[in-house]
Amino acid sequence: MADIDDDPTPESLQPLAPAVFHILVALAGGERHGYSILREVEGQTGGLRLGPGTLYGSIKRMLEQGLIEEVRAPRDAESEDERRRYYRLSRFGRRVAEAEAERLSDVVKKARAHGLLPQRG
After folding, report:
1. Against a cut of 0.85, is the pTM above it?
2. How far apart are CA 64 and CA 95, in angstroms?
3. 20 to 30 A from 76, CA-CA: which of 1, 58, 102, 119?
4. Could you tell me the pLDDT band of residue 73, with boundaries at 50, 70 and 90?
5. CA angle at residue 62 from 110 to 77, to 5 degrees?
6. For residue 67, what are the domain limits?
7. How many independent structural domains does the chain possess?
């Protein structure tokens, strides 16, 4: 029987690799397949392009960590391609993404305090 302390907490996974965080953010908007995740990450970051190896390697690890889950294709899927895999955030994955977003927010506050960003008025 596993000790309860063996279960990871969101904070125990911090800091997240940028690719992992961007994938979690992309999936926060709903279920997506791999290529759709790539496009969403590129759009939300202003051009960051994840390579297929980075994307699918990250997805594999995220599945193993319980951050995301593979799901059936939605009925309104844009393609009938049976090879396409769809993913969604798990509850734990949402908690991890929220914790990382909070951590990054704190970093931005510190950058602002040190004059790296303008103070908000």
Report:
1. yes
2. 16
3. 58
4. confident
5. 110
6. 16-73+82-113
7. 1
